[in-house]
Amino acid sequence: MAASTFEHRVTTADTAAVLGSGDLPVLATPRLINWFERATFATAQTVVEAPQTTVGTVVRIEHLKASTVGAVITVSCSTPISDGRRLIFHVRALDEDGAEIAVGEMHRRVVDSDRFMARFTEATPRPAD
Ligand SMILES: CC(C)(COP(=O)(O)OP(=O)(O)OC[C@H]1O[C@@H](n2cnc3c(N)ncnc32)[C@H](O)[C@@H]1OP(=O)(O)O)[C@@H](O)C(=O)NCCC(=O)NCCS
């Protein structure tokens, strides 16, 4: 069962040729992953409460079918399976013909926002490269 579903129309800016993940004018895998991340983050926000948030930790995606500029892609993610700190989502993308263009699994970790960021502000600054 899908918990969140979003539609995206592929633009030139979404292509592998523009994003540098390939040289063809087709939907780039990293853009597809970004769309999945946005869907899982949005869904995760409905199950955690401030000051908690979630960060993406695992991406397992199979990109099965190419999509050209103008294609409308429906991205969906399941309600998460949770073991308390970890949320596991099944994700899926279909094109306008209903063909499955990608499937996979993504994990997010529930973290306390302040504690998560504190280790960076408290760390000794690294010398400039
Ligand atoms: C999520 C993540 C912290 C889990 O790593 P981990 O090795 O299981 O974490 P650990 O339990 O060893 O803790 C390491 C540090 O992470 C932070 N951390 C761990 N769990 C945390 C939580 N629930 N809340 C806030 N910070 C947490 C703490 O700084 C912790 O150090 P501390 O124990 O001294 O406070 C780590 O995998 C990570 O940061 N991944 C990158 C996620 C990311 O940046 N995604 C992109 C942005 S969405």
Automatic annotation (TrEMBL):
InterPro entries membership: FlK, FlK-like_dom, HotDog_dom_sf
Domain Fluoroacetyl-CoA-specific thioesterase-like: 10-113
Coiled coil: none
Pfam families: FlK (PF22636)
Domain of life of the native organism: Bacteria
PANTHER family, alphabetized: BLR0278 PROTEIN, THIOESTERASE DOMAIN-CONTAINING PROTEIN
Official protein name in the record: Thioesterase
